[in-house]
């Protein structure tokens, strides 16, 4: 498989497209220009870099697309989208409120104990 095809396949996957036509459109190339580059095994990496800089919201890893180098898994951020009912939101709010209250109480207890230790320490 040529380097062009490898890069094109990784970019298609990142964009969620399947055809060369869609990829050519994303790269702002006419289909015949895209086909010519494909035939010459000359992927337009400079153009891709400029487009990705103009569209950072796409969150596409240029190095991965061009070189196939995957980021370390601990560096990856995976967005999670969930839908909650109002009851679930209320339950989470109550849980967070309880956690904050417990943390505040522990901090208060620690401060009180520290102050009591100072009051009874001999000079």
From TrEMBL:
Residue ranges of every copy of the Bacteriophage CI repressor N-terminal domain listed in the record: 9-70
InterPro entries in the cross-refs: Lambda_DNA-bd_dom_sf, Phage_CI_N
Listed Pfam families: Phage_CI_repr (PF07022)
Molecular functions (GO terms): DNA binding
One example of a Gene Ontology biological process annotation: negative regulation of DNA-templated transcription
Coiled coil: none
Superkingdom assignment: Bacteria
Protein's name in the database: Bacteriophage CI repressor N-terminal domain-containing protein
UniProt organism field: Moraxella equi
Classification lineage: Bacteria, Pseudomonadati, Pseudomonadota, Gammaproteobacteria, Moraxellales
